[in-house]
Design a protein that fits this description.
single chain, 253 residues, mainly alpha, 2 domains, 79% helix
């Protein structure tokens, strides 16, 4: 940035000087240029008029005679030549001014830095933007570091959660196996229960048929037994009670 400042300072001074000259020329370009051209064309006349010592010119030669002898007071020197120089100078300065302004414009464009296709900034603003970018970069770096730390913590937490999920999946698998086993046992129990019920039904039907035929169950059968009719029972509990009752009666007799 120091190099830009060293280059910009003389360029700014030169620009101010050129602008001052251009402003003066713009106010009275012809008069100033003509006076300058006249001085250039008649510098010998001015030197002879103001600076030559008559004592060195020789005896009897005055300053005016010297000027006349040197043909310093001709119409060309006094008017036409300065006029041509003035016209040529105006043309030259116009072209020079154009190229100077063009050069300054190009130089000024070189002082700008494009930050995108439409936006340009000069060296000072670019330095500020660069500082802001550096600060933003540092801030973003800290934020990224913080995010990376959070990411590491989240990854560790994710590993723990995965382990917990794995344990839960194993528990669920064990539960499902236990459930399946219990379901199988329950089915077996239901099957056995149904078989017992069917067995009890068969025993009941046999006892019922026997009672209906012989009247009772005793250890010693008699020919004079009274024929009874067994009751009709539907509930399995009542059937079991009926069987137990007759079994106890049979055992006692």
């Amino acid at each position: 940035m120091g190099l830009f400042k060293k280059i910009n300072k003389p360029m700014e001074e030169y620009t101010k000087s050129v602008k001052a000259v251009l402003y003066d020329r713009a106010k009275k370009p012809f008069t100033g240029t003509f006076i300058l051209a006249w001085i250039i064309c008649n510098w010998k006349f001015l030197v002879a008029l103001f600076f030559i010592n008559e004592e060195r010119l020789g005896e009897g030669i005055t300053r005016i005679e010297y000027i006349q002898n040197q043909s310093l007071l001709t119409t060309c020197n006094l008017f036409w030549t300065p006029l041509l120089y003035t016209i040529g100078g105006l043309i030259f300065f116009s072209i020079f001014n154009y190229w100077t302004l063009l050069f300054l414009k190009i130089w000024k464009d070189l002082q700008f830095t494009k930050i995108d296709k439409k936006t340009k900034v000069d060296a000072t603003d670019y330095a500020k933007l660069l500082d802001e970018f550096t600060n933003s970069k540092s801030t973003f770096a800290k934020q990224i570091d913080s995010l990376n730390k959070e990411k590491t913590l989240l990854q560790a937490e994710t590993v723990k959660q995965k382990e917990r999920i794995k344990v839960l999946e194993e528990d669920i698998k064990s539960y499902q196996q236990s459930k399946s086993k219990l379901s199988t046992q329950n089915k077996e129990y239901i099957k056995q229960k149904r078989e017992r019920e069917e067995t009890i039904d068969h025993v009941y039907e046999i006892l019922k048929a026997y009672i209906n035929k012989f009247g009772s169950i005793t250890r010693r059968s008699t020919g004079n037994s009274v024929k009874n009719e067994a009751p009709s029972i539907k509930k399995i509990e009542d059937k079991i009670a009926f069987i137990k009752n007759f079994f106890n009666h049979y055992r006692d007799n």
